[in-house]
Amino acid sequence: MVEEVVRQPLNAKKLKSVTTILPYPPLSDTQLSLLNELARRYAATRTQAVRTVVPDFPLRFIPSVEKRTVRRKSIKVKNISKLYRYLTKAKGSLVITGREMNPTDKAIADYIVTQANKGQVLCLFPDRYSLEWALHHFSAQQNRRPSIYHAGLSKSTLATTWKKIATGEAQIIFGTRTALFAPFASLCSILAFNASDDSYRSWDMQPHYDARELAMVVAKNKMPNFLFAVLPSFSITAGVPLVRVPATTLPKRVAFDRRALPYTERKKILPEELIKKIAAEDKPVLVFANKRGYAALVCRDCGYLPRCESCDRALVLKSKKTIATLHCERCNVNISTPETCPECTGASFHFVGAGVERIAEAIKNAFPTKTVQILSASNKQNVILASTLENIRRDTVDIIVATAVILPRLWTVPTFDLTIVLGAEGLFLQTDWQASERVLATLEQLSAHTSGELMVDTYGNEDPALKAFLAGTTADFYKQEIKLRKKFNYPPYGTILTLSGTSKELDTLAAVLKKGQLAIIEIILQREVGGAIKMIILKVSKEASLKPLFALLTSAIKVDVNPTTLL
Ligand SMILES: [Zn+2]
Ligand SMILES: [Zn+2]
Fold first, then answer.
1. Which architecture characterizes domain 252-291+354-483 according to CATH?
2. Backbone angles phi, psi at 417, to 5 degrees
3. At the topology level of CATH, where does 494-561 sit?
4. Among all ligands shown, which has an atom nearest to the Cα of 305?
5. Ligand 2 centroid distance, CA of 306 (Å)
6. Fewer CB within 10 Å: N-end or C-end of the chain?
7. Which residues contact 60 (CB under 8 A, 6 or more apart)?
8. Is the ipTM here above 0.95?
9. Picking from 126-140, 259-273, 373-387, which range would have the lowest pLDDT averaged per residue?
10. How much distance in Å is there from the Cα of 527 to the middle of ligand 1?
11. Which residues, including other chains, have CB under 8 Å from residue 118's CB and lie 6 or more apart?
């Protein structure tokens, strides 16, 4: 067949462009380099990498793609601020820090619209909620609507946008992490907002890539790439130049030390002093706590604490109404509450610890006439979250009790006059190498969104990160921390890998690793259940190539590179 065609005299007019025949346009150079990076950094197999970069749209949605010239509006910017000048001069990646920033800040909005005259501008957001908020406000402010691209859209909508990105018709694109893989016709700048949020990492399927790292790969050829973060993650941004913008709010940072209180006060969920503090406020108050649900249960007689069988975490009551069920937040499983203690057959249990539900209950008791609302990950999926945030904006809530779920959404609500971090010990539950960084990022974000006073309630916690935060010396603490990481080869100076899968696969791998031929600094942990290996955690030097290790992995082994948690 091919021969037949070739033998005939060539008719140039009959030749068709390959792009008119293929169901997809050929991958761009950027997309190809992303494919390779997924394999090189995150151990993606070819299939996984292709599945990540090439969307699974039904083919009929993709008509042939031809590049169009797009007529561009000319925009003049008045009152160019200092930040605007930094943005326009930037080449490659830059971290913009010191305060909260979003696409409607004047300098940033001006930058986006002027850049859009030169090519395509991609604005990345950690989650759909902040994307939609930014979209709404940016559209209203600029009187133009960016194209949106995130995994929650229907396949036909995604396909239409994908095509508009490929033709260059879409000039400003607001997207979540997947948008980075779109076939840009003329991408000229990337802006990642709220870049300390780990939602930039893919967690639901292999490979577990990090869009912030990949944005830097794309920007390598001198494309401006900005990471906006109150406190940037230094595993990711170490070595990237930093621009500090003066903070808009500088609250007083106060330690509330429970050890100074009388014994009965000390044990209260909400001591009198904090109640007085809240009572004196006529503006909305934020009470932040790092614990979901109501509380855990403990046997009154022997101290037995029901724990999850698979992960050993303390089981919690989701709310006081669901007392018959205990819940594991990590494994998302429910078990029925034991009627008697399995250890001592005692029949009375009492509550320990206070989750947001229990805190809200205590606040409602103290302030029966005030409106109290909970913002927690358990109501993340439904409309409650959006409506609660809307209520805060409308100023119809007096006290908000929130978990970390509020952090990436803080910029969508007005600044708080008083923020109380209740039970700050709850921030230190994880003890991995990123623990201090995570605590500081949380506190700095809360601080950036508080104008009057930020109180940190502790039992005299001596943690150096917390002390540095209260003293306002976070930057110095960072310098120390980075030295330690360098000394012990933790990211960004080394790579942490968690490998999980079937014990058969992992046993074989463990045997190879023991021979010590690979450039592995340390096997940190080999988690075993009943003699079978369930997980291997490795530390590899930054200089070593991961290739020989990745070559040993079968697709049955799940890989997480620099995971957010080691649990
Ligand atoms: Zn007991
Ligand atoms: Zn569990």
1. 3-Layer(aba) Sandwich (3.40)
2. -85, -40
3. Alpha-Beta Plaits (3.30.70)
4. 1
5. 11
6. N
7. none
8. no
9. 373-387
10. 29
11. 188
